[in-house]
Design a protein that fits this description.
Length: 175
C-alpha cells in the first residue's frame, strides 16, 4: 500500500521578500539538496514578505551572492503574506520580531507556528536568573542598501541558521 504524506510547509518571512527571506529560502533549499536530499521530498519551502509587492525581483546583490554560493534566485518573485498562505504553512520563521508581531496581529491563529528564525528550537532552553533575551541578537540583520560587511554578516548568519534549522527539523523528525 502506498502512503501519501503531506509535505511539511516551511515559510520564511521578511519585509519585502526580496533580500533576506528570498535568499534564505533559496539557500536552505540548496543546502538541503546537498546535505539531506531525502528531506526535499518531505519539505516545501516558500517565502513571503509582510510588506511585499507581488512580483518584485530579488535584490541584485543577493542574486549575485546566491550564484556564487551555487544556486539561482533568478526565478524568484516576491509575494505578500495572506490568510491562505498563513493557513497552509506548518512553520513560519521570520527574520525579525517586527515581522512576527505583524503576523500575530493580523493572524492570531498562527501563534503556535510563528517564530523568529533565530529563536526556533530554543524555546526549551533555560536562561540564567536575571538573564534577558536580547532582541537584536535574535533578529537576522537586514543588509539592504548597506555595505559589503553588512551583506557578509547577513550571509554568515543565514548559512549558520540554515545548518541549525536543518538539525532542528531532523531532531523533530520533520525531515
Amino acid at each position: 500500500m502506498i502512503s501519501f504524506r503531506k509535505k511539511f510547509h516551511l515559510m520564511i518571512v521578511c519585509t519585502a521578500n526580496r533580500t533576506r527571506s528570498a535568499y534564505f529560502a533559496g539557500y536552505f533549499q540548496h543546502y538541503l539538496s546537498l546535505c539531506h536530499p531525502a528531506g526535499l521530498r518531505r519539505l516545501k519551502i516558500t517565502s513571503a514578505g509582510t510588506k511585499a509587492v507581488t512580483g518584485g525581483r530579488v535584490n541584485d546583490v543577493v542574486a549575485l551572492i546566491a550564484r556564487k554560493n551555487g544556486f539561482s534566485l533568478r526565478q524568484h518573485l516576491a509575494g505578500p503574506l495572506s490568510a491562505k498562505r498563513i493557513k497552509k504553512a506548518d512553520l513560519i520563521v521570520t527574520m525579525e520580531q517586527e515581522h512576527k508581531d505583524d503576523i500575530l496581529e493580523k493572524y492570531p491563529e498562527a501563534e503556535t507556528k510563528v517564530f523568529r528564525l533565530m529563536e526556533y528550537g530554543w524555546e526549551g532552553v533555560e536562561r540564567e536568573a536575571g538573564e534577558k533575551e536580547e532582541e537584536e541578537v535574535l533578529d537576522v540583520p537586514d543588509p539592504t542598501g548597506k555595505n559589503v560587511e553588512d551583506f557578509q554578516a547577513f550571509i554568515d548568519t543565514a548559512h549558520a541558521e540554515a545548518d541549525r534549522l536543518l538539525h532542528e527539523l531532523m531532531r523533530r523528525q520533520i525531515v
